[in-house]
Amino acid sequence: MQQLCILGSTGSIGESTLDVVARHPDRLKVYALSAYSRMERLAAQAAQTQAAVVVVPTEDARQRFLEAWSAGGAAKPPEVRVGEQALAQTAAAPEVTSVMAAIVGAAGLPAAMAAAMAGKRILLANKEALVAAGGLFMKAVAQHGAQLLPIDSEHNAIFQCMPRNGSGLMEDPLSHGVRRLLLTASGGPFRATPLEQLDDVTPEQACAHPNWSMGRKISVDSATMLNKGLEVIEAYWLFSVQADAIEVVIHPQSMIHSMVEYTDGSILAQLGQPDMRTPIAYGLGFPERIDSGVGTFPLSGLARLDFQEPDLRRFPCLKLSFDALREGQVACIALNAANEVAVARFLDRKVRFTDIPRIISAVVEDAVSHAAGEPSSLEDVLALDRHFRTVARQRCPSRS
User: Fold this and answer.
1) How far apart are CA 122 and CA 341, in angstroms?
2) pTM (2 decimals)?
3) Is 98 flagged in the annotation as binding?
4) Which family does it belong to (predicted)?
5) Binding site annotation covers 11?
6) Helices 59-71 & 39-49, crossing angle to 10 degrees?
7) Does 319 appear as a known binding residue?
8) Spatial separation of the C-alpha atoms in residues 270 and 153, rounded to whole Å
């Protein structure tokens, strides 16, 4: 019986995780849940799963949770823990065997690191753990005997197509015949939009992903393809390959989630419906496969599979990501921090869609020119993250 801690349970990944968990009461049990703002939903989830613990960010959130719990008419509430430290302690708690790391942004990094240092099975859906602290995070996983399973659909697909060593990620896939990793991308809602129209893109248009139902921030990242750039950086750390062995290909149908090419010319691809329950179930059941609730794949209705190279004029954030990866960890921290600030400003209609790569570029350039060595601790990473967020806010133009 796995005892799960689901970090970010009210988000789309958290909700999908709970859907899979509910299908397997004989092997999966929820120990702890966390949420940032949706206290009513968290109370409903806690009542449904009989979670022993919930973690919330503030005392005000704690009060709102308890009010929601009382309104639901349930019995004794779970233990309510408050704050970032409590979140990390819960992820590392001895009762927990597996952690779903699904908090968006750098806020999820300390808890994911705590889970790694406690030797947990980590189902990683938080990009920042590797983008901002890849070296430190992978070192913690190795030193403390944690098991890392990628949940992002692209990395999970690559993981499924990789040669196996029986316990999880391989240390050196290139020595086992792997030639390159092919990350697929839908191209988002603006794959064919005339370039001159991108200045006037609205948040609503950017969040209208053609294939996936996602949160607002990650939907914008998909529209800029910054999300694919972050996935390139993740793949570098997860699969121990160099940047030159990672390629991105536009695949509008989102049916092939990624591919692995071998030295004999074979390409293995993982196909499936665009439903996150598939990679979540693979992670929860690994090394076995368990029911995800996803229906039969409609092969007979699949008329075509299209592929094309990404246009870096349309998607400058993708090039910025490759450049940051080659520059080192500090540049990657700057890339991620600047993007979070720029996307938030865009969603608040304070900058244009096309300002996002400009802001990121300026902050990464500043980071590269002033870098004083790689971060040696989580505290260093978080300090750099705060610094680059400040720089990004200063770089944001005033929209007229």
Assistant:
1) 27
2) 0.90
3) no
4) Belongs to the DXR family.
5) yes
6) 60
7) no
8) 10
Residue 154 counted as an annotated binding residue: yes
Q: What is the pairing mode between strands 121-124 and 256-262?
A: unpaired
pLDDT tens sequence across 136-153 = 999 999 999 999 999 999
Q: Could you tell me how far CA 254 lies from the centroid of its own chain?
A: 17
- State yes or no: 186 annotated in a binding site: yes
122 is in an annotated binding site: no
CA-based end-to-end distance of the chain: 57
Please identify which residue in the block is written with the tokens 């300026």.
362
| Residue entry with tokens 């409609």 | 298
- The three-state secondary structure class of 146 is coil
209 is annotated as contributing to ligand binding:
yes
Judge whether 215 is annotated as a binding position. Answer: yes
Instruction: Check whether 167 is labelled as a binding-site residue.
Output: no
Q: Is 127 annotated as contributing to ligand binding? A: yes
- Residue 3 phi, psi (nearest 5): -105, 115
12 appears as a binding residue in the annotation: yes
Identify the structural domains of the chain with CATH numbers, from first to last. Answer: 2-150 (3.40.50.720), 174-273 (no CATH), 328-395 (1.10.1740.10)
DSSP element (H, E) containing 33: strand 28-34
Please tell me the predicted confidence (pLDDT) of residue 213. 66
Burial group, residue 57, by CB count within 10 angstroms (0-12, 13-18, 19+) = middle
The one-letter code for the residue type at 6 is: I
Strand positions, DSSP E, 263-398: 267-271
